[in-house]
């Protein structure tokens, strides 16, 4: 995915636009993404992204925690996911009880996370989800973000999510949506519009990025996030799950992901935080100031309890942020 480094004058021109708070163009994004990872320009880019985050975010680091509520074959049928209906490779079908969810939510609150995400497969009952959410909300501090990560929905459901106590929704147009998934791009965009119209905050991510995706595709999702005026932005590489159709396509490197995150920081200009997923220490010098901890099911894991698998604990994440001299919630 690499080309030769940019000429220093072009890079300076792009950085001058950043300093002047001017929106970068798709051409600018493509030039940043095309920087050779072994060039001096690579380090100039990550330094600029780091500088921007330290200036705008101070030393504040954020810990977001997610509970996966269920493990079941999903009609979204994503070819990279352990839960796709045609490639279900998770170790078991399972669903957390309300008491299990509340117990994990209490732990997340006690560990001083900044946000709690509830994640389900696309087919999970919205009625059940809303009832669970209302009980979870009772446990949360007023200033804690409460985020839904569910399937597509209309504006009526968006309003009900807000009434249940959610402050925002994690929702995206994925890489190769409608090709590597059974979900039409138009349906994903309709959900983005519904949640914004209902007054819910959008949490966005460029994901899941694989070696076959073009810089044009990646840049388009950065610009889509900016168009929705996101405060919280992320980039995630695709994790190869054995047994899924895209496993053989491989993964991008952590270095490549770090560059993409740095470019996204400059292009998207999130107002609160920049994330990379899964947590990568090197990205914390490239403008990233927020990481995720996970419990329950994880679509990048076959373990029904990702806390025993790929998932990072809240303390793991806090320790990583502290090593980068970010200060988390006390």
From TrEMBL:
InterPro entries xref list = Aldolase_TIM, Elp3/MiaA/NifB-like_rSAM, HydE/PylB-like, rSAM, rSAM_sf
Domain of life (superkingdom):
Bacteria
The record's annotation in Pfam families points to:
Radical_SAM
Residues forming the Radical SAM core domain are 57-278
Keyword annotations: Iron, Iron-sulfur, Metal-binding, S-adenosyl-L-methionine
Q: Which GO terms describe its molecular function?
A: iron-sulfur cluster binding; metal ion binding; transferase activity
- The name this protein carries in UniProt is Biotin synthase
Species of origin reads Faecalicatena orotica
Q: Taxonomic lineage per UniProt? A: Bacteria, Bacillati, Bacillota, Clostridia, Lachnospirales
